Amino acid sequence: MTTVALRPPIDLLYAGACFERGGARCRLVDYPGEGWGRDRLEADLRDFQPDLALLSITTPGFEDDMAVAAFIKSVRPGAIVAAKGAHFNTLDREALAQHPALDLALRGEFETACEELARGRAWGEIAGLTFRADHSRIVRTQNPPFIEDLDRLPFPARHLSNNALYIRPDTGETQTTVITNRGCPYDCCFCLAGQVAGRRVRARSAENVLDEVEECVERFGIRSFLFRSDLFTARREWVLEVCRGIRERGLRRPGRAIAWSCNSRVDTVDPDLLEEMKRAGCWIIAFGVESGDQDMLDRIGKKTDLAAARRALEMTRRAGILSSVYFVIGLPWETRETLEANDRFAREIDPDILEIFYAYPFPGIPLYDEAVRLGLLRAGEVPRQAYDEPAMASLELSREDLAQARNRALRRFYLRPGVVLRTLRRAGSARAAANYVRYGWRMLKELL
Asked: Which CATH architecture fits 10-140?
């Protein structure tokens, strides 16, 4: 079982809600999630005949996404093809210059721009747009400000979504994402949060978050949630307010009982807070531990230490909440010694779930500049490898070395008899146990 599962395209659900508030009629399709290809996309384009098609893109998949943009243009030449994503915060001009099928890029927090586009406002008057004028000149409007009052955003347009696609991996229940706050005060060198959402934490009111949760329960029959944020536990009193509100609204009563997961830093939890989170339905917390080597933590700017990770995992265990730990490998300074330190530390703190991700040098973040400075990337290079394979080598290790080390570490962690027995014991039902076995077998085949 993993905390990383197919998740609803929450950004597009927000975009859909804002387009609708501006008076547009929308259709939203998660083609990768549905397993559908270009035949279905073509049929939808001919049926719905959109005036504007909005794609949500990621930097590693940018070229593939632009091929889709070109396909949309070939099927419906008169449609405006737009795209959003952090890629355009730094490479918007290049994207439009190199891809004639792309008409419009949305930069930064895009929700206001979507509503204004739907209302027919001139593009040049909307903050956060980059577009081609006069067939060649590229226009870049001013950067949009961060949205200060997140409560003024409409709830995501879940009525446009096939919500049944998105499930909690252990129980098979429908699960959705609720964005609770944006921004992170820390500045880890590999993280996009600062560029995308800023350093200041902007939280929705607890009441607004709970109103959305209740809508999901009552209107859509969803009772499992991922509370997504850059740092859910950034403000202790706010978390406590959310937890109290869950209980006061009866969202832990039989028949309505919700369960939820969230992320955290290891130095932002304490026993009393964790106890309240457990009472309110928190079943698992994802901690960004990142490394088992203190020098590496210092290099990446994590501003925490291994002792704090040990304490957080122990406190979480005592509170009866499961823990998922994230490690990041493939940073420029990675060595066999740092990887071995990760391996040892993961088994020492012994989380319920271990995830090991490869660092990705997103343009515009410190890691990218450092990789170029050290000669690990060429200036302007944007790796297509990500997530499933390393984006770049380290100063001492090849990409193949890193991939082998990741597989070896996951095998060492998960194939311990105690971990297998613990996982099956906590399943709680035959269905959950079967899901654990199914996922474990799939992961094992990938790692061998």
From this structure: 3-Layer(aba) Sandwich (3.40)
Tokens standing for 384? 């297509």
- How far apart (Å, rounded) are the C-alpha atoms in residues 246 and 227? 13
Nearest to residue 81, comparing CAs of 103, 49, 113, 56?
103
Is residue 411 over pLDDT 90? yes
Dist CA 323 CA 336 (whole Å):
26
For residue 422, the model assigns a pLDDT of 86
The arithmetic mean of pLDDT across residues 246-251, rounded, is 97
For the chain, the domains span 10-140, 167-414
Query: How many angstroms separate the CA atoms of 278 and 320, rounded?
Result: 7
At 245 the pLDDT is 98
DSSP calls for 75-131: H-TTSEEEEESTHHHHHHHHHHHH-TT--EEE-SS-HHHHHHHHTT--GGGSTTEEE
Cα–Cα distance for residue pair 94/443, rounded to 1 Å: 38
Q: Residue 216, class by beta-carbon neighbours within 10 Å (0-12 exposed, 13-18 middle, 19+ buried)?
A: buried
User: Which residues are CB-neighbours of 85 under 8 A, at least 6 positions away?
Assistant: 56, 57, 58, 59
Instruction: Looking at the structure, give the CATH architecture of the domain made up of residues 167-414.
Output: Alpha-Beta Barrel (3.20)
305: Cβ contacts below 8 Å, ≥ 6 apart? 294, 297
Show the tokens assigned to 400: 């193949």
Chain-centroid distance, C-alpha 201: 17
pLDDT in tens, 73-103: 999 999 999 999 999 999 999 999 999 999 9
Residue 378 pLDDT > 60, yes or no?
Answer: yes
How far apart are the C-alpha atoms of 435 and 84, rounded to whole Å? 34
pLDDT at position 1, please?
A: 37
Instruction: Check if the beta carbon of residue 287 is closer than 8 Å to that of residue 324.
Output: yes
Q: How far is Cα 308 from Cα 180, in angstroms, rounded to an integer?
A: 25
More confident residue, 431 or 367: 367
Residue pLDDT, tens place only, 138-195? 999 999 999 999 999 999 999 999 999 999 988 999 999 999 999 999 999 999 999 9
